[in-house]
Amino acid sequence: MTAYADLPPIEFAFPGPLRDRLVAAVLSGAKTTTTAVLADYEAAGDPLPVAGERMVIVDSAGRPVGVLEVTDVRVLRLADVDLRHALDEGEGFTSVAEWRSGHEEFWHGPQMREAVGDPHFTVDDDTPVVAERFRLVTRLPLP
After folding, report:
1. Can you spell out the DSSP letters for 60-104?
2. Which of 31, 43, 72, 117 is deepest in the core (most CB within 10 A)?
3. CA 26/CA 30 separation, integer angstroms
């Protein structure tokens, strides 16, 4: 049994090119924050992460590729996400508006609407989001 076998997984986005880019950004150290809509946690019945919790990063192929440790979790209105958080997402955003536009495109997509169980799901300034900060603890060797 591996040291990370009992850790819960963290899956960035959905399997595919976006997840691959996000995982690569985490593994490079460029990505130290992430944001999810609270509705996604609620629909899945998943608990919110807590500071100090460790999770195993899963790539698009379902392989464990790293371990991260949550350092901060905030639930806030979408309109209250700040520039530091947006920049630390490591996706090349240069403003909160640019960050929000990219996230709205994802959150309004068919996979997210299916995940939250609402074919018309949209976000606005008052939508609760989960703003998470983390650090990479270790990279795992690929099998």
Report:
1. TTS-EEEEEEEEEEEEEEGGG--HHHHHHT-S---SHHHHHHHHH
2. 31
3. 6
- Owner of token pair 């460029």: 30
Checking phi first, is residue 98 left (phi over 0); if not, alpha (psi -120 to 50) or beta?
alpha
The tokens describing 26, both together, are: 């985490």
Inform me whether the pLDDT recorded for 1 exceeds 70.
Answer: no
**Which amino acid belongs to residue 19?**
R
Is residue 90 within 8 Å of 30, Cβ to Cβ?
Answer: yes
Give, as one character, the DSSP assignment of residue 8.
P
| Cβ neighbours for 72, distance < 8 A, ≥ 6 positions apart | 51, 132, 133
Tell me the sheet residues that pair with 133. Answer: 33, 72
Please give the structure tokens belonging to residue 110.
């068919």
Token reading at 91: 């996706």
Confidence check: pLDDT of 103 > 80: yes
